[in-house]
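I trust your eye. Have a critical look at both lines of this record:
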Amino acid sequence: MIESTLDIATRDGAMESFICRPERGGPYPAVLMLMDAPGIREELRDMARRLATVGFHVVLPNLYYRAGRDTLFGPGVLQQGDPERDRMRAIRTRMTIPPVMEDIAAMLAFLDGQPEVKPGPVGCHGYCMSGPYALAAAARFPDRIAAAASFYGTWLVSDAEESPHLSLGRAKGEVYIACAEHDELAPLPMVEELRGLLDRSGAAGELEIYPGVHHGFAFPQRWCFDKPAAERHWERLIALYRRRLDRG
């Protein structure tokens, strides 16, 4: 495994990003892995490494970079009332979809100049708060994002600018939406509304509800980690990327 941490230039500054890829056999297709609300941590780096081992060039950016390079949080970020959680929420609540789309554009431009990256389509997947970002990216960049996945994405149907439910039909690639049966941030009525919108949009892809699990089920260090569901998430994601990115 070859790993590096470097800054990707954006309109608003330098976005620190963890990048990993296999040692041999490249160049490899690129995928953008977008973080959940608690932010960059070793748990996410390990997930990026797992994806890289099966043949992808993975970019994991710190989407909180606008708030400074100290936007890394301790374990208290998951505890109600903890100062670390309050610090994270103060940053998270200011995030909107349009500036993240600018970050996606910067990452795509960065990838174009990397000899280790296979030219052509790119994948994008996000967890929690970044589920909507991944789906929005498929619509904003239909000629580059050939595969997009949301895992327990939050508020996928909302009044936010560029809410993904408004533009599913503009995606040319395949989308995959995974929802937890128990998730107050994506209630089942909202999920079923989104399923109907996806069906009517004509976009390629599917929405799948993972039964009996809770928001965050794919994270190994989360209280709600569910190994069978987490392995299903890897199966679906890797198959999606191999279908859409491993061409030529």
In short: Residues 227-245 form the longest helix (19 residues). The mean pLDDT is 93. The longest strand covers residues 204-214.
